[in-house]
């Protein structure tokens, strides 16, 4: 190699969730998890609905999520879609990603009573 050679390396960030499509600039889209931004090799991601969250991946269809907004661990999976299990309350919550709202059930699955909350 001569002294005036230039070497350019392009590294592709591997998404934290395997089914994700690379949108560019660190942004990814997962059909079941939504849109998120991640820094390479980090578990903290910025989710378009949830804000900053920490992901613990059990496998690519099963994720524990730490939410700073809720100060709680939630579990979700590809099979649950927009449903999250809120560990601290032993309750299921439903996220309406389009409106940044979540529905918290008072006694799911025995009752559909609950409330909508701004997220």
Number of strands: 11
* Strands side by side in the biggest sheet: 1-2-3-4-5-6-7-8-9-10-11
Beta-strand share of residues: over 45%
Major β-sheet annotation: 11 strands, antiparallel
N/C terminus separation: 56 Å
Helix content: under 10%
Average residue pLDDT = 81
Q: How many structural domains can be distinguished in the coordinates?
A: 1
Question: Whole-number radius of gyration?
Answer: 18 Å
Total helical elements: 0
Shape annotation = elongated
N-to-C SSE string, H for helix and E for strand: EEEEEEEEEEE
Low-confidence stretches: none
Structural class from helices and strands?
Answer: mainly beta
Please tell me about this protein's structure:
Helix content is 0%, strand content 49%. It is mainly β and 119 residues long. The chain has one domain. Strands 1-2-3-4-5-6-7-8-9-10-11 form an eleven-stranded antiparallel β-sheet, with no helix packed on it. It has no helices and eleven strands. It is elongated.
